[in-house]
Fold AMP-binding protein.
Amino acid sequence: MSDDKLEREKKLMDLLVRLTDSPFYRRKLADYNLMNIGLKQISTLPITVKGELRKAGAFDNLAVDRKEAVHYCESFGTAGEPTSAWFTKEDLETGIRQIKGCGVRFAKEDIVLLRFPHGLTAAALLMQQTCLKVGATIIPGHSSATPYPKVLDLMNRLNVTIIAGSPREIELLAETTRLLGLNSSEHFPSLRAIIVTGEVVGERRKEHLKQRWGVPIIDIYGTAETANIAAMCVHGSMHVLEQDVVVEALKEDGSGLAKSGERGLAAITTLSHQASPLLRYLNEDVISVEHGLCACGQTESKLVHYGRLKDRTRFGEIVLDDKDIQDAIYSLTPVPDAWKAIQQENGFHMILDSERYADWSLEGIQVQLSEMLKVTVTAEIGFGMLLNRDELVRNVASKRQVYICKRDNEDPDTSSSILLRDLLRRGYSEFMSSKYEKAQQLFEEAVALIPGSAEAHAWLAAVYGRQIDAAWSLTEKIKLFPKLENEITTALEIDPALPLARRMNGSKLLNTPDMLGGDPAAAANEFRYCIDQGMNDVEIWVSLAECYMKTDDPVKAKEALKAALAIEPMNEKAAQLLEQAKKRKNL
């Protein structure tokens, strides 16, 4: 047995002893004989799931005295209670060693701009500590506090050699460079590498980033609970950090390990972690692990990250992970500056935003994406549909990107989905009874339960719209308008194709004065879209007629009003507008 394998076996033995210092694992492993357990027998031990860690809380999986813990992290908790992780000084040193060993090879001469937010994850801290360890200069370019033009100015003036941030932040920095009339691959001669983490980065996306910046792209894979799991070498392979973790790719049916190179669910055992160690932690990611020698000389297994299990979409026997969709999008020429994949019954509706959209063929794109993904793909192409480029060159905080919008019935968290539908149903009932305060409370609960529900945000916007209509004072209307606008914007960012969100946007465009951004013609397009999607109530036809009246088209207004009166013959507003339309037509 090689020295490396002997070291890993020893670390596993130490881990099994250390786990019993954690109240959580002391209970979990009480009925297991941990003697004579080696790496080959690790599959006989139980897996650990997120639900168990959430239930355990922040202190129950702590395996050291609380005084020894010097840093705390936790997941975002978007699916419920967050999961916790603690770090000792030794754990931080391990993280530093791992980052130092990645393909970037930090040096004392480096000037490193950190674009990570200093939140409850370890990425920013470990990157900063690594720089301190090697003596590199740190520039804290926090993504929510330092606007994109300022970051580019710092990079240029201070001769930055390395940028570290999420892939999306790196893409947006490149687009801002273009908007400022510069070339990102030529304007920063000192830049030698970019480190990314936090999102899936397939080969095509990595190549796209490399072409835009002209430097190597080094990816680091990890989670809040485990810290670093794998790091990319200079040849672009993601290597498992086998000195510190055991990574298993488990078959989804629980029957054992996936074959080498075959997709499975990641189970992570943290050999080196002291403060809050984990045994076979199912982190809900889809990965593959392949053994063999790399061109860089490393023998550590190669890992491919396909995305989160909750982001997986299925169409019959066709299974698509985040990486599959991403690889298809980044195969386009040009690559879109922003994109969104909206799940439909039999495929996807893609929204693609690029300043070079005229270079695309809509039919060609639909055929190419359909062939690559093996499902039906429809598309919308244009400029400014998803990405507000004015914000990039102004002092506006960046937002977390939503790439794939799944259908509500595909939500893997069934209990949350059921509760969401109940809140929306009850809120709708109160809304239709004009009990707007109660409806607002229920829709706010729905938003808090599932922040990614476009429907919940759209209904909350509908409540604000009615409250604005009912408000007596201009001051109250002005106070409510930003809330309305924010909910509409959020709903459209999550699902631009949602008819209710489009309807609320139409109402905003219709009722806002032109000088403040109102646009009756654009509002008419929104209402027509909703009608084409099946909305057929008297109010939407009346709103459409109002748009045509404001754009001086009484003929179309008359047609819309006739449709409204066919639904509700005694509607006074429709009848009054019809008389006005007839008079205007006769002028």
Remarks:
- Confidence is low (pLDDT under 50) at residues 410-415.
- The radius of gyration is 27 Å.
- Residues 374 and 492 are 27 Å apart (CA to CA).
